[in-house]
Amino acid sequence: MKHMNSEVKEERTSNKKRIDLFLVPIVLIAAFLNLFKIWTDEYANAYYTAAVKSMLQSLHNFFYASFDPGGYVTIDKPPVVFWIQTISAKIFGFHGWSVILPQALAGIGSVLLLYVLVKRTFGVWAGRFAALAMALTPIVPAVSRTNNIDSMLVFTLLVATWMLFRAVRTAKFGWVLAAFAMIGVAFNMKMLQAYMVLPAFYVFYVVATKINWKKKIAFLTTATALMLAVSVSWAVVVDSTSADKRPYMGSSQTNSVLELAFGYNGINRLTGNTSVTGSSHKQSAQTEQQTASSETKQNSNSSADSSQSSNQRKSSSSQKMQAPGGGNQNGMFNTGNPGPFRLFQKGLSDQISWLLPFVIFSIVGLFAGVKFKGSYTTKQKESLFWLAWLLPVAVFFSIAGFFHQYYLIMLAPPIAAFAGAGAVALWSMYKQHNGWKSWLLPGGILTTAALQVYIMSPYVSSIGVAPIAGVGALGVILALVLAVRKQRKNSLTNYLGAAAMVVLLAMPAYWAMTPIIYGGNSMLPSAGPDSSSGMGGPPSTATNSKQSGFNGMQPPGSSSGNSSSNNQMQPPSGSSNGGQMPGGSSNNGQMQPPSGSSNSGEMQMPGGSSNNSQMPNSSSSKSSSSKRKSGGMNAEVNKKLLNYLTKNNTGEKYLFATTDSTSAAPYIIKTGEPVMAMGGFSGSDPILTVSKLKAMIKKGEVKYFYLSGMGKGGQSDVITWIKENSKEIPSSKWQSTSSSAQQGPSGNGTLYEITLK
């Protein structure tokens, strides 16, 4: 911090000629957090990993991002990120780490880009602090260590930001076009989420460019048109292709990419109605929540105390697994309740909000003295850009009805940028005794330390009292000492300022490491001592970070006696169906299986495993592999079932058909054979009709069906027809009876065979 402001110009000049040695350890920290032990995640998010396996097999599957090798249904996102993952798997071989690698590198790239963006205008120290804050924002490495899309999305948007800043500096229209075209590319990664930055792009270009209004409007209109053209290019090609010549568009209700983009993956995220035709996708959201809730790390400690802690964790998790309106103070997927202070609620605050108070003080300092009429400095213009990114995105997450914790990575760039720029600005105001502005630095330190104590307080049983008390005490002491020493100019004051920044980054750094320490969840990534659960709730005391699959659940064909009547899913309060979830029945408030299920009284997970929604305890069965099988769908297969299906295949296109992707993904990953997820991701897509299925069977495309009672929505008639027109295969021929069977999500089902002449 010493002589920070006086050296800015010198450091800018010198850094053009040499590598910034301060940046090197920051990049190494980011590399460690994003890359270390990704090789232990053998299958990552199996839903997406299965798609990469399928995309490797043909250009047809590659272009459409087909979930299965047979080209039956696509995944629920556009293909660009998965094209990159497939190329990575082609180069390095098909592994969990090879599909994660592009996102991990994107996370590191985002740190470097933020350094470049902030350094040019706010100085090298601001760039360093911004890069470090980005690297240590917990949700950033948590997401970057998976094959989910968001890390690559943020990197792409930062590339677009670099292009926009260059367009303003050089006054070249070509860079404006490139910036907006890059947003169009980002749209083909995660659809409307990419457009969250548009307010910042429009506001900044209007304010920062020195051209007349006619040119501004013309340039922005042209750039927007190009962005829209790039955005819908893939969608138009897919939607204009005959449905019988391409896979069904997964998670849509009309087999349309545009409907998926602006409905299920668009406006419905804001409204919380993740349904297009009523209840089918609400069921999908609840299914996904139930799936993720059960993915909790194992506890290798078998002591009585550990068992007790595990039982408490079960109860806590059971309470969390409620749909919106179910009385859960943490909301669906532990994303809190909508409101102005949502980002400070448990479950979200520990992912992204560690530095928010300091950012607020920084914004006040950076915009102090700004007049609406008059010229703006470059610092003020770029501060306005980051503010126009931060505020709309923060508002969205404050009111949105449905999202996941890891979406919060969208807030990381503006928060990190303000943390870096603000640290330098507030320090300058403090040193120059700029009246009330000189109090912003100690005020920001004090309030940020207080928030961090609040964030950590629910985790006292896991991290202990010492770090919480330490951050609180040091924050108060340093803020008070800085306030007292305001009139003194010596090296001690400089060291105190630097120490304060270290204190404020200490616990975010620890939180960023938790996916490495405790294990991660590749389906619903989050950071914290409970990171492997993917639900962001109070921590467990588990110490084994290598396991995070579906402990206590079985793959197709395995058997287990594990069940618990004390951990039933609770229905949403105020439910219009008497406390039932869709398709269930009421039994004293306990969650019931879908109608038609043979497992009466038990909650079924995706693919039909029946375990009363139980969470694992310390004696849960352990994987035979040292690698972590995470991703919401444990990619273990029942070898006896696989051997039976392979031996009795008589040339059918599909190895077997099943209700949803949860049951299909492990077999696609393991074998590369086509497996039909009849209802897409959740089993609710209206893909298949009875007449279409009859035609497929007559053509010899499919013969075996694994059903577990989870066929819902558009698949109920098909499931009924299969059961009425098939021969049930005796379980002794295909079902594993070993109590140590590999753990997975799709046990307790029935195998059927249908042959039509």
Structure description:
By secondary structure, this protein is mainly alpha-helical. It is 51% helix and 2% strand. The protein is built from 27 helices and 5 strands. The protein has helices at 8-15, 23-35, 46-55, 59-64, 80-92, 96-122, 124-136, 139-144, 150-170, 173-190, 198-208, 213-239, 257-271, 280-293, 304-320, 349-352, 356-367, 378-399, 412-431, 440-456, 460-463, 465-484, 491-517, 639-647, 661-671, 690-698, 716-724, and strands at residues 656-658, 675-677, 704-707, 727-728, 750-753. Strands 2-1-3-5-4 form a 5-stranded mixed sheet, with helices on both faces. β1 (656-658), α25 and β2 form a beta-alpha-beta unit. α2 packs antiparallel against α6. Mean pLDDT is 80; it is low at 1-8, 275-329, 537-554, 558-626, 630-634 and 739-746.
